[in-house]
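quick one: magnesium ion bound model?
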Amino acid sequence: MKKVEAIIKPFKLDDVRESLADIGITGMTVSEVKGFGRQKGHTELYRGAEYMVDFLPKVKIELVIQDDVLDQALDVIVDTARTGKIGDGKIFVTDVERVIRIRTGEENEDAV
Ligand SMILES: Nc1ncnc2c1ncn2[C@@H]1O[C@H](COP(=O)(O)OP(=O)(O)OP(=O)(O)O)[C@@H](O)[C@H]1O
Ligand SMILES: [Mg+2]
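yep, here:
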């Protein structure tokens, strides 16, 4: 199992959620976050205005998925979240050791 953390532009969240649902992703966690990339937050466009702040608003999506859907999920996120402008975001992938569904006690592949 893999965890995918995708930092994206907030206005892309609905599209990304829908595209992921379309390929059968059944759960995700979303947070409002702030961050910067290599432009250090300066001079990035957000909702048509040029922001001059240290941290720009972003949305973080976290998904834990089975290995066999990883590549498809990454393709969907990249294709849907890309505008081609700076600040489109970044995706981090890590291994997940264990997953437990609290209600049933099911684990791992049965629980994602
Ligand atoms: N190395 C990193 N570690 C953790 N979070 C990061 C890292 N790089 C980017 N982020 C997060 O992703 C958000 C978007 O980053 P961004 O797309 O600006 O990356 P970039 O490397 O500057 O690429 P680009 O040149 O396309 O803007 C940042 O605001 C931050 O929240
Ligand atoms: Mg950047």
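The pocket of adenosine-5'-triphosphate (ligand 1) is lined by residues 7, 35-39, 56, 58, 86-90 (CB under 6 Å).
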